[in-house]
Amino acid sequence: MRRVVITGIGVVTPLGSALPTFWENIRAGRNGIGPIESFDASGMASRIAGEVQGFDVNAFITPKDQRRMDRFTHYALGAVDMALDDSGLDLEKEDRDRIGVLVGSGIGGLRTLEIQHGILRDRGPGRCSPFMIPQMISNIAGGLAAIRHGLRGPNFAVVSACASAAHSLGGALRIIERGDADVMVSGGAEASVTELGVAGFCAMRALSTRNDEPETASRPFDRDRDGFVIADGAGVMILEEAEHARARGARVYAELAGFGMTCDAYHMTAPAEDGRGAARAMRLAMADAGLTAGDIDYINAHGTSTPLNDKVETLAIKLALGEERAREIPVSSSKSMTGHLLGAAAGVETAICALSLHEGVVPPTINLHTPDPACDLDYVSEGLRELPVRACLNNSLGFGGHNACLCLKRAE
Length: 412
Known about the structure:
The protein folds into two domains: about 5-245, Thiolase/Chalcone synthase (Peroxisomal Thiolase, Chain A, domain 1), CATH 3.40.47; about 260-410, 3-Layer(aba) Sandwich (Peroxisomal Thiolase, Chain A, domain 1). The chain has 14 helices and 14 strands. It has helices at about 20-30, 65, 70-85, 110-125, 130-135, 140-150, 165-175, 195-205, 240-245, 275-290, 305-320, 325, 335-340, 345-360; strands spanning about 5-10, 35, 50, 100-105, 155, 185-190, 235-240, 255-265, 300, 330, 360, 385, 390-400, 400-410. Strand 13 (about 390-400) and strand 14 form a beta hairpin. The longest helix is centred in the N-terminal third of the chain and has 17 residues, at about 70-85.
C-alpha cells in the first residue's frame, strides 16, 4: 500500500491566516471568538462568532474575480495557495495530471444566496447575477483551485456537514493509496457567519448565547457549556505519496496513515447516545493505520461545546480505546479557541494534529473551568503540554450522523 504524508499546510482562521501566527496562537491557548462585526447581529440570540483574522483577499484574488466568488471560495483559494507554497512543490516540474483537488464545504455559498435572494425579491429575476449558481455550489472551490494551478487529477467535493473536511482528507488519502494521483490538495472551507447562517443555527438553539463573555463562550467538556460558537475559515493540506515526497526532498509534517467513517443512522442532528458510531470510526481509523489503542498518544476531539456532543464523544472515546487507556490519553478541543468552522473544521484540526506530531506538543482545551462529571478524561486544561506524540486521532461528527476519524503518525 502506498503511504501518504502531509508536506504543506494552509490555514485561514479566527486565530490568524498565516501558519506561524495561527500555530503560535494555538500553542498559547488564545481565544479567537468575539462579537460579530461582519453584519448587524443585534437581533440574534447569539451575537458572537469566530470571524477570520489576518486574511488579505487581495493578496490572492483580483478584485474582479473576488466579485465572482463567494467568501468561502476566497478562503479556500487562499488556503490552497498557502499550502502549495508551504509544500515547496514546483508545479512546473510536476505531472499535473497526477495532482488532484478535494476540498469540501458543509454549506457552500450561503452569503451569495442571501444577496441574490434579496435582489430577486426587490428587483426581479432579470437582475440576478449570472455568477449566482457557480458562486454558491460547494464544489466550486476545488474547481477554481484546479483551474488556477492547472491541476488535472481527481477533483470533486464532499458535503457531510461538520465532517466534510475529514471525509475530503480521507477520500484524498484513498485516491493516493490506490495510485490515482501522487499529490492531492485537500481540506475544507466555510463562510457561514452570515445573517441567514447565524439565524438558522439560533433557531435550532445550537449556538452559545454567552454574548457578554465571548472569550469564554466556547467551553468544550465544561459543565456550563451552552452551545457551539460558529466560525469561518479554511484548512488545506498537501497530501503526497511518500516516495514522491522523499524524491524531491520535501519537509514532512506527519503521515496520514488511517481513515474510518461510519453513520449513526439515528437522528437528523443529535449524535447517537450510545456513542457506538463514533467509536467504530475511531477503531476503523486505527486498524487502517495498523495501530492499536496503545499506540495513540493524543486525540483532537470534535469537542463542539454542545451538551450532547461532548458527553457522547467522551463515551465514544472510552468505547473505542477501552476506558483504562482512554483515561491515559490527552484529549483536547481546539474549537475552544477557534470556534466551530463547520465543514472546514477538520481541515484546520488536521493541521493542528500534524504540527503536534511534528513538534511533540499537545495543544490545550481552554475555558474548561468546571468539568462535567460525564466528561471525565484528560482534556489538557492546564495549557500546552510537551509530549512526544507518536500517533493521534482527529474526530469529526456531522449532522445526519456522519462520523469520520483520521489517524496521523509521526513522520519517520
